[in-house]
């Protein structure tokens, strides 16, 4: 068959890769939700920490004025400091979620690239001279890609490797015109060429 560059030669069943892609997209959605949750936690804890610091500052003044005990002042300051530690944990959770999102996006990009390999197209215009795969056959590549098709670019010129009797070799000269036959058509002269 004659094929044009870009013609689809065959497709590999993409269902396994589609499943992997769906899983990777779900992982990205989960990471995105985790990031949103971590950002919400940071906003909430920032507001609580600001409020607690204000309360601790007021209690500190009230302790100085003798209205509250030193213990109450220390307790409000400890609460504010604990919320400050929560802010650090929230920032770390945001960084972790962002890193997970980047990893999930990289996985999606890799799977999409693999999916693009499930459609095999003709790399050149030419004639398919050999097909090494049939419909339904498993195609597997280990260390190198298997040869699925052989496409000849231009059959108007080709090289013929021929067996010549030793007795006839002495009569052959460069540029000499010759004709040849092939076993498939023993009575026909297939082509004309020159040495």
Structure description:
Helix 1 runs antiparallel to helix 2. The strands form 3 sheets. A 3-stranded antiparallel β-sheet has the order 1-4-5, with no helix packed on it. Strands 2-3 form a two-stranded antiparallel sheet. Strands 6-7 form a two-stranded antiparallel ribbon. It contains 3 helices and 7 strands, in the order E-E-H-H-E-E-E-H-E-E. The mean pLDDT is 80. The protein is of the alpha+beta class.
Which bin fits the share of residues in helices? 40-55%
* Strand numbers in spatial order across the main sheet: 1-4-5
- What is the radius of gyration computed over CA atoms, rounded to a whole number of angstroms? 38 Å
- Secondary structural class: alpha+beta
Distance between the termini: 29 Å
Number of helices: 3
* Strand/helix succession: EEHHEEEHEE
What about the largest sheet? 3 strands, antiparallel
Strand content: 5-15%
What is the average of the pLDDT values?
A: 80
Overall number of strands: 7
Shape: rod-shaped
Low-pLDDT runs: none
Quick structural gist:
The protein is an alpha+beta fold. It has helices spanning 15-64, 70-116, 166-169; strands spanning 2-3, 8-11, 119-121, 126-131, 149-152, 177-180, 191-194.
What descriptors fit this protein?
195 residues; single chain; 14% strand; 7 strands; alpha+beta
How is the secondary structure organized here?
Blueprint: E1 2-3, E2 8-11, H1 15-64, H2 70-116, E3 119-121, E4 126-131, E5 149-152, H3 166-169, E6 177-180, E7 191-194
Antiparallel strand pairs: 1-4, 2-3, 4-5, 6-7
């Amino acid at each position: 068959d004659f094929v044009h560059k870009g013609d689809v030669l065959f497709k590999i069943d993409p269902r396994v890769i589609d499943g992997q892609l769906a899983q990777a997209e779900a992982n990205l959605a989960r990471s995105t939700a985790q990031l949103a949750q971590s950002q919400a936690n940071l906003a909430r804890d920032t507001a609580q920490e600001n409020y607690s610091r204000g309360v601790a500052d007021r209690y500190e003044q009230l302790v100085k004025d003798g209205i509250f005990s030193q213990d109450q002042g220390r307790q409000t300051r400890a609460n504010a400091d604990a919320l400050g530690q929560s802010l650090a944990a929230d920032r770390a959770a945001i960084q972790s979620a962002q890193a997970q999102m980047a990893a999930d996006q990289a996985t999606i990009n890799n799977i999409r690239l693999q999916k693009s390999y499930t459609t095999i197209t003709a790399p050149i215009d030419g004639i398919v001279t050999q097909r090494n795969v049939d419909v339904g056959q498993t195609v597997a590549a280990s260390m190198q890609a298997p040869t699925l098709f052989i496409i000849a670019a231009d059959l108007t010129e080709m090289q013929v490797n021929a067996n010549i009797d030793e007795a006839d070799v002495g009569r052959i000269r460069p540029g000499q015109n010759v004709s040849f036959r092939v076993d498939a058509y023993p009575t026909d002269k297939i082509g004309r060429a020159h040495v």
